[in-house]
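Reader question, answered in our methods column.
A reader sent in the components of a multi-part assembly and asked whether the whole thing could be modeled at once rather than chain by chain. We filled in our standard form and ran it. Here is what they sent:
COMPLEX SIZE: two components
ENTRIES:
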Amino acid sequence: MKKSTFIIIVLLAIAVVPAFCAAGYYETGDQVFSFRAGVEFPAFLSFLNDPSRNQSWGEMHMQKVGGIASISYQGYLTQNLALGGELGYQFINSLTPSLYTAVPITAKLTYVPVQTGLFDLAFSANLGFAFIKYGEGKYLAPYASATIQPSFYITDSWGIGIEAGVMATAELYTKSATYDKHRNNAILGMVPLAVVVSYRH
Amino acid sequence: MKRTTLILIPILLAAMLLCSCNADAQDGIYSAIADSTLDSGTKVKAYLGSAEDSHGEVYNYVLTDSAVIRLGTGSGSFTQIQSTKDALLDEAALVSNGSNKGIYVTVHKAGSSDPSDSRLLKYNLEGNLDTSFGSKTHVKWLTTNGMYYIEDGSEYTLGSVSSSSEQTLAKKITQVFESENYILARFEDGSINVYLNDGSTPAPDGTAGIANIVGFQVIGNTTLEFLVVAKSGSSYGIHTLTIDGTNLKLSSDAVASLKSSSSSDRIQSFHHLTGATDSVDHVVFKMDNYFDQLDIAKDSTGEPKYTVTTLNTAGYASKLRTSLVVNIIVDDVTGIVTIATYSNSIWQIDPTNNIDPIEIK
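And here is the structure of the entire assembly that came back:
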C-alpha cells in the first residue's frame, strides 16, 4: 500500500470513528436538499420468465457507462430517519442509435446511523416509479434503489459526498391474449457512482 | 371523507396512471435492448442477390445508400458503382444469368425534377458501365427482381430487365410491391394486377383492388396464389389473391390479421415450408419489433385454416427482432432466406430451424 493511501485512510478513520460514539446531530424537523450527478454502470438484465436471455456486466447490449442526475428533499422524522422524495434522470446508450432514458420519481427513506455534524454516513432506500423510454417504446416502470452515502460537511450547511449502490427498474406484463408478454418481464440493474452536494437546514 | 377513502383514492389514481401509460407498451423495452444488434456502419437499401463473375467466383451484390458494392472473398476485381451528383442511385436489380446478365440501376440528377433525368443504366458484374445498353429515361422505379416502369407523359410502360420485354399499360401505376419473381401493381383507379418478372401477366384482366396495401407475398406451390396485407386502422388484414381463369380474385374479407404493429408502409415477408414433407405453408412477416408468422393448414374438410402467431423463438426471430428489414430474398433451390437490414448487416437464415443467422460479409 502506498504511503499516501495509508495516510488518507488514517485521517478518514480519525474523522469517522468518533462519530460512532458521538451524540446525534440531527433533530426531528431538520431538512436536507441534495443534488446528485454522476455515472451509472449497467450491471444486469434479468428476464424473469426466460433466464436464457439474461445478460450480466460485460455482455449487456448497452454502452459501458451512462449518466445520472437527481434532486431530492427530505425531512427528519426522528434523529436518524429522514423521509422525502427524489426526482432523477438517467441515460445510457444501447448498441443502436436509440438512447435509453429513465425518469425516476420516488419516495426516499434515509437512515443515518453516523452523524457528527462534520461527517454523515447514510443508507437510503428509494421506492417509486420511473418513466422509461427506448426508441418508440415507453413504459411506466416500478423502480427501487438502495444506496450508501458518506458525506463531509464543509460548512454547517453545505456538504459533499459520494453515493454508490444499486438501482433496479422492472418491466412487468400480464399475460396478453395476443402475445405472451411474460417473455418480456425483466429487471434492469444499474450501479450508480455519483457526487452528492447537500444543503441542510 | 373517511380515512380509508382518502387512502384508496391515491392508490386508484396511481393504478390508473400505470395502466394508461403502459397501454401501448407491449413490445418490451428491455427485450428490445437485449435483442438489439450492433450498427454495421453500412446503410443497406437492398440485397440484390448473388452471381458468378467472369472468373467463376460467386459474390453477393448489395445496394447501399451511396453505392452498389460486392461482398465476397474472391480475387476478381470490382469497381463500386458510386452515387454521383449527376447520377444519384435510387434502385438496383441483379440479373445473375442469361444474356442480360448484369447490374441494373436507376439514377436521377441531384436537384432536377425533369423526368428525362431519371434513367435506367446497366453495368456488368465487374462494375463497369455497359455502354451498349444505352439508357432508358423517364424511369419511375426498378424493383429488386428486375421490373421497371416508365412514365412518359400519358404513356406508361412496364419492362423486364431479364427478358428485355416491354408492354404498354392503359393506366398509370401508383404503387408497386414485389415478392420473389412477382410484382403487384396498383393502378390509379385502385385496381391491381400481378406480373411475373419476365414481363408476362398471369392474370391479364386484373381485378378490383383494395385500399392501403402494405404487403404482398406469393405462396402456392402448385397453383399460383398470393397474399395481400392491407392496413385498416391499427389492424393488418391478410387477404388471399388467387387466379380464377384469367381474373384475379381478391378475398373481400381478411382471412387473418397480423398481431404485431408496423410503422412502415411496406411490410417485408417470406414464404417457406417447415420441411420437405410438410404441407403447411408458413409466411413470415417482419413487423417493427417482431416476426409474425401465418400458418396455412388444411382442416378436416380440406378448407384452408389460417393461424397467426408472433414468433418468440431463438435464432433469427430473436436476433433480428428489432432490426429494420429492407428486403428479403429466398433461394428457390436451397430454401435459404437472405434478410437485409438497413443498419444491422445482411443475414442468411434457414427458416426451418432456430439457429442463429449467418452474416454475409
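What stands out: The interface with chain A takes residues 17-18, 21-22, 24-39, 259-260, 263, 288, 290, 310, 312, 318, 322, 343 of chain B (CB under 8 Å). The CA atoms of residues 102 and 282 of chain B lie 32 Å apart.
Send us your own complexes using the same form.
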